[in-house]
Design goal:
The mean pLDDT is 90. The protein is built from 15 helices and 2 strands. With 315 residues, it is mainly alpha-helical.
């Protein structure tokens, strides 16, 4: 029998036949405890008295020392467990959530910049990232370089005048917004790189961003791999699903996977079939990624054949 403090052989009468106690190194005991907890076969019977056996083995001299050492070992094991819990799919989940936070902040700031700069130079006709870059580089319309394509338009602009102080503030504001967009591109590249390593099949079938978002919504790759394809099909359509369950709407055909080009670009008549085919392939891809991690091109090829047959059947 293995316990967290020793390997013990027990006689039929319950006495200790042989015992190999561990050292009292808390870190080593913590690692042993984690292995011990992960294997349910190693859990002793209810009649087993660990304190008594630990004393008989010579691991400790008394109850106080046993419980003190057990407490230290449990704390060290918890620290190790937390330290090792930062899995690769957790990186993807945090990156996706960071992307959502950036989008939310960037949309608010871009709207403010659009209104602010639009009152000064409405003829610029730019929005969001393009406007942020333009303002960060050029500032006010009177500061545009001679060779700028907007120079003539700026001279006849009907926008209100702004002075140098206004220009400095709005230019700095646009520079901050522009850096947010740049950070967004960096995080997207980070997600793509990690998806290729962690979930190559899911990345191949869904694309990096959609695949990462599915992992994030499921709470991890393992969780996603355990989901049936019907659940993956409607992930992200919570409101429509509950409305359907209350009998007030038809069942949703798709959730977040609507963003996949196969569904988004399909005729509404065949979107349901496309969603089922895609969700099925996503389910298989996530399982292969979770349990083997190797790229299997057959999954994408089967999806392509299925999509072709759906399109031909619709003609």
């Amino acid at each position: 029998m293995k316990t967290w403090f020793a390997d013990i052989e027990i006689n039929e009468d319950g006495s200790v036949a042989e015992c190999s106690p561990c050292t009292q190194d808390v870190q080593q005991l913590a690692k042993r405890l984690l292995v011990f907890q992960a294997d349910p076969k190693q859990i002793p019977l209810a009649s087993f008295d660990p304190v008594k056996k630990a004393i008989e083995c010579g691991f400790v001299s008394g109850k106080t020392e046993y419980y003190s050492l057990l407490q230290q070992t449990c704390i060290a094991a918890t620290r190790l467990k937390i330290k090792n819990s930062y899995s690769p799919d957790l990186r993807i989940i945090h990156a996706v959530e960071a992307l959502d936070d950036i989008d939310e902040a960037a949309n608010l700031l871009a709207e403010r910049l659009g209104i602010w700069y639009g009152e000064h130079f409405p003829e610029a006709g730019m929005l969001t990232e393009n406007l942020a870059k333009f303002v960060a580089e050029n500032g006010l319309r009177q500061d545009l370089p001679q060779d700028s394509q907007f120079r003539e338009t700026a001279l006849s602009s009907v926008g209100m005048e702004m002075d140098a102080e206004d220009g400095a503030i709005i230019k700095a504001f646009a520079a901050d917004l522009s850096s947010l967009y740049e950070r967004r591109h960096v995080i997207e590249s980070y997600i793509r790189k990690n998806m290729e390593q962690l979930a190559p099949n899911l990345e191949k079938v869904a694309g990096a961003n959609l695949g990462a978002r599915l992992i994030s919504m499921a709470g991890g790759l393992q969780s996603l791999s355990r989901m049936p394809s019907s659940t993956i099909q409607v992930m992200g359509a919570n409101q429509a699903l509950f409305k359907h369950l209350r009998g007030k709407a038809t069942s949703p055909k798709h959730g977040i996977i609507f963003n996949h080009p196969l569904i988004k670009n399909s005729h509404p008549k065949i979107r349901g079939k496309m969603a089922r085919a895609l969700a099925s392939s996503l389910s298989i891809a996530s399982r292969v990624d979770a349990f083997s991690g190797r790229l299997n091109p057959v999954i994408k090829e089967k999806l392509d054949r299925k999509v072709l047959s759906i399109k031909e059947g619709d003609k």
